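# step 3/5: fold
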Amino acid sequence: MLTTHTTATLAATALALTVLTGGLVVLGDTRPANATTTLDRPGCRYRVVRVKTRLNVRVTPAGRVVDKLYPGDRTWGSCKKFGKWRRIHGTDLGRRGFASTHHLKKTGRR
């Protein structure tokens, strides 16, 4: 089992060897060049329309309610439709789920 001191010593030794041999030291973001985050993926922006009180965001289409959207709220999510549902992010708690396409107007792409 490695202790914190042993791990730090090994890391310092590896760094020193890399510097002495003229190797490249990477200290920043180490993810592969082709890796994408959620924000890198294309998506669409939506505005909530035709709602008087609130629009429920559900875990699955017609499933359990996990968040809410209110009239005029702006949100974002996938451009793809799942039947009559779209996958979006709620504004009350920020949870991801599905909302009815009838109440979402696409305002642009992310």
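# step 4/5: annotate
DSSP finds one helix and seven strands in the chain.
# step 5/5: archive (pending)
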